[in-house]
Automatic annotation (TrEMBL):
Keywords from the named record: Signal
Keyword hit for Signal: yes
Transmembrane segments: none
PANTHER family: PROTEIN STAR (PTHR34009:SF2)
Gene Ontology cellular component list: endoplasmic reticulum membrane; Golgi apparatus; late endosome membrane; plasma membrane
Residues in the signal sequence: 1-23
Protein name from the UniProt record: Methyltransferase FkbM domain-containing protein
Taxonomy of the source species: Eukaryota, Metazoa, Ecdysozoa, Arthropoda, Hexapoda
Amino acid sequence: MFLKRAVKAVLLIFVMLMIKCLWNSILNDTHNQNTPTVQSEEVAGIPKPFVKMSHISFSEIKDLPLGDPRIIEYLRRYVLIPPSKLPYVFTKEMGSLYKEQVKQMFGTKSNGFFIECGANDGEYLSNTLELEMRGWKGLLIEAQPELGKMLMTKNRKAWFANVCLSPYSNISEIEFAVGRFMNARYKNAIGKLLLPDNSYMGTLYRKYGKVPCFPITTIMAALGVTHVDYLSLDVEGVELKILNTLPFDGTLVIDYIQVEINHVRGGQKAVKRFLESKGYDFLFMHDIDAFYKRRF
Ligand SMILES: *[C@@H]1O[C@H](CO)[C@@H](O)[C@H](O)[C@H]1NC(C)=O
Ligand SMILES: *[C@@H]1O[C@H](CO)[C@@H](O)[C@H](O)[C@H]1NC(C)=O
């Protein structure tokens, strides 16, 4: 009697294990099919993750020391969206206002890496789209969530992060405002961080809520990119603060920097003083943007 029961129990456990195994492999299959592989090796040579974890939230990583591998892991899993493999979908928006300047800097170069921060919808006034279509790789950053959604529909062949670049050297959540313009095209088309010294909203903005901000160096470490040909920075006033978070010690080398200077406190003069002290030469102004080149 006892033996019979024991055999039954063992059989039952065995059957349950089989079912669990089968179930796991079904789950695994659907998971593999539906989850975009964030660590797509071909793009930026991203190494395999070195920390295994099931889930991690922003609140768990925001206070970790910057070198902590869990931050890199978080960025790769939840923040960095890989380049699209689908065909472009454009709405024929106006292109870059700086085509001539980009041509002067890069000629017909077809293999660079760009960072465009303040990427808008990825098409409208995009400074990097032409480079990407020529074969450049890159990273688009746009903190404004609605613009981020629009950007995703364009199928850009660059990485995308719907966060802001931190104006500090830490990870933080910062109050964000979005523009409210009459013209439908410009509705929500601009976002800005509200900092203690940069919180003026006027009537053109409304408060949006907090957005997560990561230092540029942390995001680039997650991408495994240490050399950038072109950084385009248009962040409604915190440009100089973001430049201040760059290491300038060879760990992240940036050759050309374009800065929108009209909202920066101290303007072009302050930007020039800062970048020249960090080994850059001023190239030229065009419209409201200043262009700089690293002294090679
Ligand atoms: C899940 O899928 C991956 C990739 O196809 C495979 O390497 C792994 O062995 C699978 N795991 C299980 C439990 O089936
Ligand atoms: C990040 O640094 C800034 C400036 O030093 C500081 O005001 C802010 O409180 C810090 N944020 C966090 C989340 O530590």
